[in-house]
Amino acid sequence: MTSDIADPTLADAGRARIDWADDQMPVLRSIRERLAGERPLEGITVGACLHVTAETANLARALIAGGAEVALCAANPLSTQDDAAAALVELHGAEVHAVRGEDAETYAAHVAAVAAREPHVTLDDGADLVSLLHMAAPPLRERVLGATEETTTGLLRLRALEAEGRLEVPVLAVNEAISERVFNDRFGTGQSTLDGILRATNLLLAGRTVVVLGYGWTGRGVAQRARGAGASVVVCEVEPLAALEARMEGFEVMPALVAAERGDVFITVTGGRDVLTRAHFERMKDGAVLANAGHFDVEISLADLGALADGPPRRVRPLVHRYDIGGRALNLLADGRVVNLAAAEGHPAAVMDMSFAVHALVVEHLVRAPARLAPGVQPVPDAIDREVARLKLASLGVEIDVLSERQREYLSSWDHSG
């Protein structure tokens, strides 16, 4: 196996980072211990395009313990932790193609290197790997058992591929598992997005107006935590039900062009593109901060921002570029890339514990299934969601009630006359 990483000598530092995360990931650790005893993944190659962090390293360790060969590349050029990548290669036997800050050409080459391993199962955060396999190496049905997808953005791409009749493999929508949406999106991204913004800027949020564009599961978490930090929160939405929910939760709701004049900090989290454009920038206050918490760097129009500016942006902090526009300054964080990873460390390990536990169990499910699943985007089996929740409760020392037989009968019968 040939890897491409920044510096193999960082392996010891990476080991410490991975072990720290492992201490906070008891669910995945328990799955790793079981897989190590059963070895259900012998002979399986897993290709993964995920954020190369200590938490992802522990997912790779679990799969390797189960017998799999793992090839990993980065889902974002700025999310790689070079020390974690080094430890995975030097100490845990994974193949890794990821260097923090890699350019677009290198990024594409790294995804291609993982695709060239002809994986039996793919794990994606944005659908780049499985999409490349569909473009470069069809037909896939005989070789690929299935795939997982971690993001809303990736699922949008895959459902579009399915609608065209071109999706050749089953894709389990990890992003839509209950354990993923509640904990990863709401608690994980909610906290880590603000963490990234604060690390990049050292701003005080209390007393400021934060505009959250998108009120899906992730937007809910961002809005709630911004309010908890003392900010006044405005929500912008295109879906009536989501907008109504935001209003009933006590947030102001208004069109983005109106909010552009009000906001001090803008956070895009829609999964779409061109959420903030020239028309918005022209209305913003001097000193406004622009951050993206969506997967790809297309939610804030960098082309419009650059065209509107008086000249090239100035780097005023390591992760802040200032655009001067007719006497005003707009501050872009992390080049418009996903701010919780580009400017911070992503979700807390305790959150990724559940997310990656789902991935690990889905891989096992795809391998052990008596018959191959049909192609198409599919939900994660309810039994996997419940098993992850059960293991998490057990790790917290929490016990819950169990239905009696009589209660079960009552809930499963239409005749309540007896």
Describe this structure in words.
By secondary structure, this protein is an alpha/beta fold. It has helices at residues 11-23, 26-38, 54-65, 82-92, 104-115, 128-136, 152-163, 178-201, 217-228, 240-248, 256-259, 278-281, 302-308, 339-342, 349-368, 382-395, 405-411, and strands spanning 45-50, 69-74, 95-97, 121-124, 146-149, 170-173, 209-213, 232-236, 252-253, 265-268, 288-292, 314-317, 320-325, 328-333, 376-378. Strand 4 (121-124), helix 6 and strand 5 form a beta-alpha-beta unit. It is globular, with a radius of gyration of 22 Å. The chain starts with 10 loop residues before the first helix and ends in a 7-residue tail after the last helix. It has 17 helices and 15 strands.
Report the radius of gyration as a whole number of Å.
22 Å
Mean pLDDT: 94
Helix content: 40-55%
Distance between the ends: 67 Å
The strand order across the widest sheet is: 9-8-7-10-11-14-13-12
Brief rundown of the structure:
This protein has 418 residues and is α/β, with parallel strands linked by helices. The protein has helices spanning 11-23, 26-38, 54-65, 82-92, 104-115, 128-136, 152-163, 178-201, 217-228, 240-248, 256-259, 278-281, 302-308, 339-342, 349-368, 382-395, 405-411; strands spanning 45-50, 69-74, 95-97, 121-124, 146-149, 170-173, 209-213, 232-236, 252-253, 265-268, 288-292, 314-317, 320-325, 328-333, 376-378.
Essential attributes:
single chain; alpha/beta; 8-stranded mixed beta sheet; 7-stranded parallel beta sheet; 15 strands
